[in-house]
């Protein structure tokens, strides 16, 4: 059994780095607050006897030796970055839970056959730089390191510049740390476990993701003197797209969602009809055929709206992540650990994307979910209980022990 | 006849203050660029022999003596501030046209009975600080000077601070310069004169304006893991309001318009359902009963949308300007000046608000319109011809001579 109080203590200690007034965390990837938590994490890993390295995209790897160093390490961990108005658990539980597993094994003097590697992946959230799960995507070869280094945030700062600005461009090439498999603990970020009174979600699959950048070009004109029929209003165009996206996701539901999270009017003014809007779209489904249908329906709706309103709309698919099907043996290992420990569990699909989904494309991967309050995440009010966090960390530890061999 | 080349020269000389790459002007009220054009204007007025004073809200008044100084001056002028992406003529033609009238009278050695006062009103546009036509509204007593001085822009800077930052908080109280009447020259900002091939618009009325500040409070949550039916999406709510506003304006059309020009998502992120949006609304009609109907329909639609989506929407009417009916004698004077000069003309309603609409509430006022290309305004592509600008300025001069007495 892990030390529940110690785990809870580290979660709340690190929540000071970027703490918001409403009890959440604002710790955008590669920000000053991210540097603070990274420094804390490196020190904690070193104190736990791990050999810590950082790769060229800033991901941190802490290695615990195994009896058989010819075996590839069992990877565990998650991420320490948050949304602009994020919570204290998303990513953090999985990373500090991994650290807690190491601390517990150390205290109990338990050696494993295979080494264990604790990882903090850079920019999982994807809100400062696209795509989400950026560093793990480069790790598995979906993108080159140079491509990722040149990605820009809204202010035009590149990933490379941001890494340098906090001193976290590591000296190891991406992929230097081989892993044999990866297990990630996370809050569910949805309402199912809580509603069903289950403690552990045995994650067997994950939704695929489509991310688009969009730009609407209408025509700025005077709000008072431009008759309604002559308008080419970028915001009215966006509004139709938002509602079309909502209707399309519902039509393909329940196994589909669609969201417009960002929309910025260029040079807004009260008495000017909006002329130009930049926006983003996020569509998901656990079913690849539904993802294709979402893309097709969305493009069709946008073409119709754009033609009817004589307003140009450009959309650009910037990221496509297919649905994830986790490794059956690892899924079984998670399930059996939950059973052995006496926790109630159910199989579950992840609505969110995770680094484990990327790793699953080149190695066996799996995930452990615990409930979060009202299914709320990507919100400062995100919450989870200490017993559930401890339960998930115990399941993580027992899964690792089963895979790594004692 | 005024000097068309000199007028054209001053319009294009001052267009350098805030010139944009697309040929427009960005000269927000009380900005550094506004200071530049104010300095230029004060110097030009002084060189034309005017006695220049600035009031406590930064409006500039240049007085040309009359034979009978017991008569109240005839006011002429407009504004030199622009929209964030504005044109070279909106407000500028009326202010520099007024200056051109003075220069022409000087050159011709013409004295008038009543004095003439050229005015540059502060913050006509209303995009940095609400309401529009701010200084003339204070002049006529719609707001106190202190109220206006405390209005804030999006950055939280007050009008008072902005005035001080460019050294234009004048030493004269608002209202120090009495005026007997006011005549304003302006581009039409709509498509009617051009479409009908008329040179002069004799403005007999102006639309009333309703300005609202709105705030939508939904609930931020994860774009991937929040099922569609559980969402309280602030952007989808806004989208319904935008389309409802459009439908309501069309229903009450053609004599009604409605626009949402500003909408800002708080802490936007691609994979977060928008939780909070601040927005503005602008509704207009030349008919007071239709204005009331717009307000009623809009509030009804918003209440229904808000209840159905379980998303709170607050709206706050920050400005209500009733429709304007200009002074019949002054309207006739403008019409007769156009006729005498041989320009084609028609009566017209102003779609936009103007300082003359405020002044009309306490003194006789009227306006002269000239065509602008494709009716485009509040756009960097705003355009007008030199002959039309000269024609409008001639009509302004002859109207002034008729009122002031030669
Ligand atoms: N787990 C999580 O919130 N990841 C962020 C990436 C995404 O799914 O949008
Ligand atoms: N003339 C003009 O564009 N005024 C700005 C105020 C408004 O009508 O919105």
Question: Would you mind describing this structure in some detail?
Answer:
The structure is a homodimer of 406-residue chains. By secondary structure, chain A is of the alpha+beta class. Chain A contains twelve helices and 16 strands. Chain A has helices at 4-14, 32-47, 92-107, 134-139, 145-149, 159-165, 192-196, 234-251, 288-309, 328-340, 355-359, 386-404, and strands spanning 51-54, 60-64, 74-78, 116-120, 181-187, 200-206, 208-217, 221-222, 257-259, 263-265, 272-273, 276-285, 312-321, 324-325, 345-350, 365-370. In chain A, strands 1, 2, 3, 4, 5, 6, 14, 15 and 16 form a nine-stranded mixed β-sheet that branches. In chain A, strands 7, 9, 10, 12 and 13 form a five-stranded antiparallel β-sheet that branches. In chain A, strand 3, helix 3 and strand 4 (116-120) form a beta-alpha-beta unit. In chain A, helix 3 packs across helix 12 (386-404) and helix 10 (328-340) crosses helix 12. The longest helix of chain A is centred in the last third of the chain and has 22 residues, at 288-309. Chain A is globular. The model of chain A has no long low-confidence stretch (mean pLDDT 98). At the A-B interface, strand 8, helix 8, strand 9, strand 10 and strand 11 of A face strand 8, helix 8, strand 9, strand 10 and strand 11 of B. One N-(aminocarbonyl)-beta-alanine sits between chains A (90, 124-126, 132, 189, 352-354) and B (222, 224, 271). Chains A, B: It comes from Bradyrhizobium nanningense. Chains A, B: Zn(2+) 1 binds at residues 79, 90, 186. Chains A, B: Residues 208-306 form the Peptidase M20 dimerisation domain. Chains A, B: Keywords: Hydrolase, Metal-binding, Zinc. Chains A, B: It holds the Pfam family M20_dimer.
């Amino acid at each position: 059994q892990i030390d529940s109080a110690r785990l809870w203590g580290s979660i709340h200690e690190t929540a000071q780095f970027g703490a918001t007034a409403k009890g959440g965390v604002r710790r955008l990837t590669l920000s000053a607050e991210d540097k603070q938590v990274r420094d804390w994490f490196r020190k904690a890993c070193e104190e736990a006897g791990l050999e810590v390295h950082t790769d060229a995209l800033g991901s941190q790897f802490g290695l615990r030796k195994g009896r058989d160093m010819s075996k590839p390490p069992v990877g565990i961990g998650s991420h320490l970055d948050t949304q602009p108005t994020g919570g204290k658990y998303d990513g953090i539980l999985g990373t500090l839970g991994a650290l807690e597993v190491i601390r517990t094994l150390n205290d109990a003097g338990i050696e494993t056959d295979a080494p264990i590697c604790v990882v903090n992946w850079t920019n999982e959230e994807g809100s400062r730089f696209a795509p989400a799960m950026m560093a793990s995507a480069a790790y598995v070869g979906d993108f080159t390191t140079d491509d990722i280094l040149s990605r820009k945030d809204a202010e035009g700062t590149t990933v490379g510049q941001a890494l340098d600005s906090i001193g976290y461009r590591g000296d190891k090439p991406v992929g230097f740390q081989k892993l044999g498999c990866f297990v990630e603990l996370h809050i569910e970020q949805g309402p199912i476990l809580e509603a069903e009174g289950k403690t552990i979600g045995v994650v067997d699959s994950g939704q695929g993701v489509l991310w688009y950048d969009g730009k609407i070009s209408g025509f700025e004109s005077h709000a008072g003197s431009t008759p309604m029929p002559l308008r080419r209003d970028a915001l009215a165009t966006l509004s139709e797209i938002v509602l079309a996206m909502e209707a399309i996701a519902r039509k393909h539901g329940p196994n589909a969602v669609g969201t417009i999270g960002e929309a910025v009017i260029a040079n807004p003014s009260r008495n000017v009809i909006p002329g130009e809007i930049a926006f983003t779209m996020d569509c998901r489904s656990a079913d690849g055929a539904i993802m294709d249908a979402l893309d097709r329906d969305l493009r069709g709706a946008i073409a119709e709206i754009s033609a009817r309103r004589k307003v140009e709309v450009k959309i650009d698919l910037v990221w496509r992540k297919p649905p994830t099907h986790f490794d059956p043996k690892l899924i079984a290992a998670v399930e059996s650990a939950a059973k052995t420990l006496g926790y109630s569990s159910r199989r579950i699909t992840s609505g969110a994307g995770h680094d484990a989904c990327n790793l699953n494309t080149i190695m066996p991967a799996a995930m452990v979910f615990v409930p979060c309050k009202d299914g709320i995440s990507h919100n400062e009010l995100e919450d989870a209980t200490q017993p559930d966090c401890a339960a998930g960390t115990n399941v993580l530890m027992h899964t690792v022990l089963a895979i790594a061999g004692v």
